[in-house]
Automatic annotation (TrEMBL):
Residues 18-358, 363-581 form the DUF2264 domain. Coiled coil: none annotated. This is DUF2264 domain-containing protein. PANTHER family: LINALOOL DEHYDRATASE_ISOMERASE DOMAIN-CONTAINING PROTEIN.
């Protein structure tokens, strides 16, 4: 018998075509958690791995995060048999005299995050979690929430958490300082960039937190807030504009662009589409919105994302602690249940009644100036050429934000050892070494510009080495031009897209001067050296295991060469496609190298002096 890893996925086998299928999926995801509830119901401890916050807060994640799905289920009339357990847990967790008390807050704390789901639940279904409580428990709950909301929340999407708590307190008739609500609503507006895009805080960080946090919470507020018509109208209008862009972060099969942090939240990426329905914002035709939503859930139903007991793992396409953030506990993945927000809507809602429409894709590149990306739709995939993002706070921040190319089908890899230059994947990146052991990659930019569908970045792997990189779409290829100025010789390795590696090394690889190719039963990935006067050798590199987000074992085509002191220009073409005749035809017709002088003229015509523009760490 062959073991099928996807059999551990609670969504496996669910057709995910109807509202009833989605409701079943929620039950199947929640039920494996039941054995892990504490005796008093206030804590859910799933394993022994730790996050940077205390163990109690991690247990609260396991308790609270499922409410993002269970609350809409109940609001929409769905059956859930364990509200008694949640009432007991809520009462005990907020009771200072109970052994399972959640603890006081005296500063910015993870508990603030989890109280948002509780505020949302109090707002949506007070008859299930508030009204049946005895008076003493009600006083404790009110006191705990009023106390926690007084402290400063992190200067990013966290500010919405106080807003959601306040919606709950308002619903149950508890008085609170509304000036704090207004303050955070105003500060959240300060993150707005335009064209529907926000930044997540005061850094150049524009990732999945914009759809599954900033807009997700904003649309909840737009639906549930009382007497704030001007702001809720803005939230709706911004979200409507955003849809025209964010749909290009999803491929035709339902996969989302693998980019940025917190990817262990997985199908939380469906939350934006469900939030449009929840708030009755038909940003795109309902058929397209529903198609995006359902395809994304189906994509995840095929991945081995759970442990053998059916509990969601930390990881992305499979259990993987290496790619996780320091704030990921075993309960963290259950933010994925934000995807179930449209269960609050009846079957008769036009979202549920619509027939799914295919994804809107285009062979032409789609520039997105705010995240600093150019999107390219290829078969079964969406590729983002990227420049201009910054993140110094996250583990593997360079890999999660600063690669040249990201993909929904092939994901990206994180590096396992900065002292193992020869073993690095460098997919979507170029790595430099001056000692053959350690290496440097792009971490941030001194300048990041977009002109039409071409991206430019200026960056320094060392203080005395400068690299200028142009990214040019040539669908399904993309071309990277690097102008490197260095006072000493360097080694350089540049990688294409990773593909899944077959057992018994049953992949077909081609390695030669200026060319590397990896071919599996399902995919082809290639890199070509288009440089003039520089020789690089090709290698099909079997990367270290568990470094890629989607596949545990991968192979990546690379170009390796020496960089002399002085100025060197490297030109690389990269592509990856599903295997087949069409992919073979693409391989036979590699794109010509762009004219670097013409690219420089392009930015000059935009009135931009590339040497003069600096990208601040903070806006």
């Amino acid at each position: 018998m062959t073991y099928d890893p996807s059999s551990a996925n609670p969504l496996a086998g669910n057709p995910l075509q109807t509202r009833a299928d989605v409701e079943k999926a929620l039950h199947d995801l929640f039920n494996p958690l039941l054995p892990f509830f504490s005796e008093g119901g206030a804590r859910v401890r799933l394993d022994g791995a730790a996050a940077h916050f205390d163990r109690i807060a991690a247990d609260i994640e396991g308790f609270a995060r499922p409410l993002w799905g269970l609350t809409p289920l109940a609001a929409g009339g769905g059956r859930f048999d364990h509200w008694t357990l949640y009432r007991e847990g809520l009462a005990n967790g907020m009771d200072p005299e109970h052994p399972e008390y959640w603890g006081e807050v005296s500063r910015t704390d993870q508990r603030m995050v989890e109280m948002a789901a509780i505020g949302f639940t109090l707002k949506m279904v007070p008859h299930l979690v508030w009204e049946p409580l005895p008076e003493r428990a009600k006083k404790n709950v009110a006191a705990y929430l009023k106390h926690i909301r007084r402290f400063d929340y992190a200067d990013n999407n966290w500010k919405f958490f106080r807003i959601l708590v306040d919606l709950g307190l308002e619903e149950i008739g508890v008085d609170f300082d509304r000036s704090l609500t207004d303050k955070y609503l105003e500060e959240l507006d300060g993150f707005y960039l335009g064209d529907g895009w926000y930044r997540d805080g005061n850094v150049r960080r524009i990732d999945h937190y914009i759809p599954f946090a900033m807009h997700f919470y904003g649309l909840i507020y737009a639906r549930l807030a009382k007497s704030d018509e001007e702001r809720t109208a803005r939230y709706r209008e911004r979200a409507e504009r955003f849809a025209r862009d964010i749909r290009h972060w999803y491929d035709e099969d339902g996969g989302a662009l693998a980019f940025g942090r917190s990817l262990t939240y997985r199908f939380a990426c469906a939350g934006i589409w469900g939030a449009y329905a929840f708030a009755d914002v038909e940003a795109l035709p309902w058929a397209e919105v529903k198609g995006q939503y359902m395809r994304h859930l189906r994509w995840w139903s095929k991945q081995p994302i759970a442990n053998r007991d059916g509990v969601l793992s930390v990881g992305y396409g499979y259990p993987n602690l290496l790619m996780s953030e320091s704030y990921n506990s075993a309960g963290s993945p259950y933010w994925a249940l934000k995807a179930f927000l449209p269960l609050a809507l009846p079957e008769s809602h036009p979202f549920w009644q619509a027939e799914e429409a295919p994804a809107v894709t285009t062979p032409e590149p789609v520039p997105l100036k705010h995240p600093g990306m150019v999107m390219m739709h290829t078969p079964g995939n969406v590729v983002a050429l990227s420049s201009g993002q910054q993140n110094y706070q996250m583990r593997f921040g360079a890999e999660k934000y600063a690669k040249f190319a990201y993909s929904s089908r092939y994901g990206f890899s994180v590096e396992a050892d900065e002292r193992a230059y020869a073993n690095a994947a460098f997919d979507g990146m170029i790595g430099f070494s001056d000692d053959g052991r350690h290496y440097r990659v792009r971490e941030s930019n001194e300048a990041a510009l977009i002109a039409g569908d071409t991206l430019y970045g200026k960056w320094k792997p060392w203080s005395d080495v400068t690299v200028e990189t142009w990214l040019v779409p040539a669908n399904p290829w993309h071309i990277r031009i690097h102008r490197i100025e260095t006072p000493r010789p360097l080694n350089a390795t540049e990688g294409g897209f990773v593909i899944a590696r077959a057992d018994l090394d049953a992949d077909t690889c081609e390695e030669g001067e200026g060319r590397a190719l990896a071919r599996s039963a399902t995919d082809i990935s290639a890199v070509l050296d288009l440089s003039s006067g520089v020789k690089r050798s090709g290698r099909a590199h079997r990367a270290l295991p568990n470094t890629n987000l989607i596949c545990a074992k991968t192979i990546v085509p690379q170009l390796l060469g020496d960089i002399s002191a002085g100025t060197t220009v490297l030109v690389t073409a990269a592509m990856a496609l599903p295997a087949g005749e069409a992919a073979e035809a693409v391989l036979a017709g590699a794109p010509p190298p762009p004219d670097l002088a013409a690219l420089e003229d392009l930015f000059a015509r935009e009135g931009i002096d590339v040497s003069a523009i600096q990208v601040p760490e903070r806006f």
